[in-house]
Write a structure and sequence with these properties.
Layout (H helix, E strand, L loop, with lengths): L1 H17 L12 E4 L2 H4 L4 E4 L3 E2 L7 H14 L4 E3 L7 H10 L5 H11 L3 E11 L5 E10 L5 E10 L3 H13 L17 H13 L4
Parallel strand pairs: 2-4, 2-5, 3-5
Antiparallel strand pairs: 1-7, 5-6, 6-7
Helix pairs in contact: 3-7, 4-5
Length: about 210
C-alpha cells in the first residue's frame, strides 16, 4: 500500500512539469488570397514567367523561380507548361507591372499561343544571399479566362527575425529531408538554395 502511494505521488510530481515543455513552434502567417472555387478550378495549364526584380534589389530571380517551380509542381494540381526560350511576351508583362498596370494584350497573346489557363507572375521584393538571409517574394496567379487573380501570396522572410528562424526550424524538422551535416537544421540558414526552398514552400502551401 505504501509503495503504491509513493508511485502515485511520483506520477503527480511529474505531471506539472509537462506544462513547462516548449510548445511546437507555429508557422508565421502568410499574406495570401484565394479566389472563389469556381474561378480557381478553371485554371489548370499554367506557365510560370521569369520573376522580375524590383529596383534596388540584388538580382536573384532565377534562383527563386527554380525553388518556386520545385514547390509548385509538388502540389500536383496544375499542369506546368515550360516557358520556351523564344517567348518574349513575359518581358512586356513584367514591364507593364513596373508601370503599375498589367498588359492584357500580352497575357492574351501568351495564353492563345500556348493554350494556357493561367499565368504565374512573381516579383523579388528583397534578397540577401548571405547570413542573415532575407528573401521577399510576391506571387500572383492570373486566370486567362476571367482576367482575374485567382491566387496571390507575398512574404518577407528576414532571418534577423527570431520568429522566422523558429519557423525555419519547424519547416526543416517537419518537411525538409535531413542531410548529414554538422550544422543540422541550421544549414538552411547558410545555404541560399535551402533558404529559398523554405520561403517558396511557405508561400506555395497557401495555394490549396
Amino acid at each position: 500500500m505504501k509503495r503504491a502511494l509513493l508511485t502515485i505521488l511520483g506520477i503527480m510530481a511529474v505531471l506539472p512539469s509537462c506544462s513547462l515543455l516548449p510548445l511546437p513552434p507555429r508557422k508565421v502567417p502568410v499574406n495570401h488570397f484565394v479566389a472563389d472555387r469556381r474561378d480557381f478550378d478553371t485554371v489548370r495549364r499554367v506557365m510560370v514567367l521569369p520573376f522580375h526584380t524590383e529596383t534596388g534589389v540584388h538580382p536573384a530571380s532565377d534562383t527563386l523561380r527554380r525553388a518556386f517551380l520545385n514547390e509548385f509542381i509538388k502540389l500536383q494540381r496544375f499542369e506546368v507548361v515550360p516557358l520556351p526560350l523564344r517567348a518574349a511576351e513575359h518581358q512586356e508583362i513584367n514591364d507593364s507591372l513596373r508601370r503599375g498596370r498589367l498588359s492584357t494584350n500580352a497575357l492574351v497573346a501568351l495564353g492563345e499561343r500556348y493554350e494556357l489557363d493561367g499565368v504565374m507572375i512573381g516579383a523579388v521584393t528583397s534578397y540577401r544571399a548571405y547570413p542573415p538571409q532575407n528573401v521577399g517574394l510576391r506571387l500572383q496567379l492570373v486566370s486567362l479566362h476571367s482576367g482575374k487573380t485567382v491566387w496571390a501570396a507575398d512574404g518577407m522572410y528576414d532571418a534577423n527575425d527570431a520568429r522566422i528562424v523558429e519557423d525555419l526550424q519547424h519547416y526543416s524538422e517537419s518537411f525538409a529531408a535531413q542531410e548529414s551535416s554538422m550544422h543540422g537544421w541550421e544549414l538552411n540558414l547558410l545555404s541560399p538554395q535551402k533558404y529559398a526552398a523554405f520561403v517558396t514552400h511557405r508561400l506555395v502551401a497557401t495555394c490549396r
